[in-house]
Design brief:
This protein has 18 helices and 14 strands. α9 crosses α11. The longest helix is centred in the middle third of the chain and has 32 residues. It folds into three domains: about 200 residues, NAD(P)-binding Rossmann-like Domain (Rossmann fold, 3-Layer(aba) Sandwich); about 80 residues, Orthogonal Bundle (N-(1-d-carboxylethyl)-l-norvaline Dehydrogenase, domain 2); about 130 residues, 3-Layer(aba) Sandwich (Rossmann fold), CATH 3.40.50.720. Helices cover about 45% and strands about 15% of the residues. It has a six-stranded parallel β-sheet with strand order 3-2-1-4-5-6, with helices on both faces. A six-stranded parallel β-sheet has the order 11-10-9-12-13-14.
Length: about 450
């Protein structure tokens, strides 16, 4: 099939490349000329494992191309996906639909009469109705259909998620559009993912509800972790004990510094705004946001406490800056709360991240960025593990201890065992587990 993908950001680029890998003919459209030039040269604007190879292979096979002009790309397309950004709007936190509406107007002018227009962007309930109104106002006789097809891609595992999805959600009551969307996803039939056909508004809400629920699970286990520290229990064992109940499940029950990233923070806020406008407030999600924000703001205090109440003039090594491993995404990362808090307490911060330092540098002034973890730890009074990159899971602890000024480790991801760290001579604190002394 001929597919136009409007937007070559994270969702558009991954989706376009995967559709091309299925055998579809995909044109990705982006108005950023420098980004398109870079993509044509094989340079990725984001770090996502395997994406560079996927793009290169399909570009070489002429199934995937990149352009700046929307009209020629959508003119012959059977399916037009809208995958532009929907950032939180300043002032009220609602999703900013400017790019979505602009894309709809341009699509209306150029698309074929029978095009199926599909929203991949995360959008509030009712956005599909507005897109249809915009397109129909420009082309009242056209036989187009507007569909909601939300994405459920995890950064760092997006290609696997796209090709082996838990489910595919398609929101439309149009039978022709349903048939077209079945054909779009036909290559996945051997993997037998469930395809859920719903109403368009229902599909739009599914995306927000899913992210809000996962954010709630994270926040729940973080509060349980605080309780574990207070009563002497182990949050990892608690998480395993409740996660074995298949009504609960083990995923997203890993205590840590709080959620961040491109989705959970903005999507939970947008859901709250939608609920408030509908006079159906979601108090649980409001509390989740409040608790998560407070948790990230308290991270520096956790490090200060581990350093006997003061970090003034001390060197703190921070390992991991991105909000999660296998991405270079710094959006709402816990490090953006931790490091300024440490600096405000007059600490000197040395930091390392395998992929995120380029993006972090303009966001974290005054930080010394190091080439590797051992350089960051050299002469440090404390070491803080913020992101659970594989590169940090098997550090040479003897080398780390020898190079540090004081053997204090604050592990915000629980990647080491307390008894092991004590045996190595570290003063070790983690999340939801008793602190150990060497």
């Amino acid at each position: 099939m001929r597919i136009a993908m409007i937007g070559s950001g994270y969702v558009g680029l991954v989706s376009g490349a995967c559709f091309a890998d299925f055998g579809h003919e995909v044109v990705c459209v982006d108005k950023d000329k420098s980004k398109v030039a870079a993509l044509r040269a094989g340079e990725m604007p984001i770090f996502e494992p395997g994406l560079d190879e996927l793009v290169a292979r399909n570009a070489r096979e002429r199934r995937l191309s990149f352009v700046t002009e929307l009209a020629p790309a959508v003119r012959d397309a059977e399916v037009v996906f809208v995958a532009v950004g929907t950032p939180a709007r300043r002032g009220d936190g609602h999703a900013d639909l400017t790019f979505v509406h602009d894309a709809a107007r341009e699509i209306a002018e150029a698309a074929s009469d029978s095009a199926v227009i599909v929203t991949k962007s995360t959008v509030p309930v009712g956005t599909g109705d507005e897109i249809e109104r915009i397109v129909r106002a420009a082309r009242p006789q056209a036989k187009f259909a507007v569909v909601s097809n939300p994405e459920f891609l995890r950064e760092g595992a997006a290609i696997t998620d796209f090709k082996r999805p838990d489910r595919i959600v398609i929101g439309t009551e149009d039978e022709r559009a349903r048939a077209v969307m079945r054909e779009v996803y036909r290559p996945l039939y051997l993997n037998a993912p469930p395809i859920l056909f719903t109403g368009r508004r229902t599909a739009e809400l599914i995306k927000y509800a899913a992210n809000a629920f996962l954010a709630t699970k994270i926040t729940f286990i973080n509060e349980i972790a605080d309780l574990c520290e207070a009563v002497g229990a182990d949050v990892q064992e608690v998480a395993r004990g409740i996660g074995l109940d298949n009504r609960i499940g083990a995923k997203f029950l890993h205590a840590g510094p709080g959620f961040g990233g491109s989705c959970f923070p903005k999507d939970t806020v947008a859901l709250i705004r939608t609920a408030q406008e509908a006079d159906a407030p979601i108090n649980i999600v409001e509390t989740v946001i409040s608790v998560n924000d407070a948790r990230k703001q308290s991270l520096a205090k956790r490090v200060v406490d581990a350093c006997n109440g003061s970090v003034e003039g001390k060197v703190i090594a921070v390992l991991g800056l991105t909000f999660k491993p296998n991405t270079d995404d710094m959006r709402d990362a816990p490090s953006l709360s931790l490091i300024p808090g440490l600096q405000q307490a007059r600490a000197v911060v040395h930091a390392h991240d395998p992929q995120g330092m380029k993006q972090a540098k303009p966001l974290l002034p005054g930080v010394r960025f190091c080439e590797h973890a051992y350089e960051a730890a050299e002469g440090a009074d404390a070491l803080v593990i913020v992101t659970e990159w594989d590169a940090y899971r098997a550090l040479d602890l003897g080398r780390i201890k020898q190079s540090m000024k004081s053997p204090v480790v604050v592990d915000l991801r629980n990647i080491y065992r307390p008894e092991e760290m004590a045996a190595k001579g570290f003063r070790y604190s983690s999340i939801g587990r008793p602190r150990t002394e060497s």
